[in-house]
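job 3f2a | input accepted
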Amino acid sequence: MCAQDAKRAAKEGVDGLVLSNHGGRNLDTAPPAILVLLDLHKNCPEVFEKMEIYVDGGIRRGTDILKAICLGATAVGIGRPALYALNYGQEGVEHLVDVLKDELSTAMALIGITSLSQAHPGLINTLDVDHMIPQGLEEHPYAKKHTKRKGREVKL
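job 3f2a | predicted structure (156 res):
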């Protein structure tokens, strides 16, 4: 998933997107959903007004939930932590929910908000990862596809 995918989805009238890098080894180099959110803000911010954006993957703490919401996510999925908590039955899952609620409440208080409706991108610092966000180019900035090498044709 990237900004170009989101633009196309919006053009086709899709109601929402799920940002996920699931797939194990099949997608082990896919960007984390939080970086895709930044990609969308940088290269196609209009999609946030046109569709819902769900983040599924990488959510481990209440602060992760807050970051995703600040960056425009409609909601987040909490798969792996819930799966681990399920090892302890219903009590484990309830404890996970309590911990996430507590972490989320604490993080919200620390940035000065009392409701998730007050969340916005200006509340988080993304400077450490901004260099990882593509420039919205349809092609790689310098690497080009070559189909021939020194007189012999490469079969694709």
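job 3f2a | Residues 70 and 122 are 8 Å apart (CA to CA).
job 3f2a | closed
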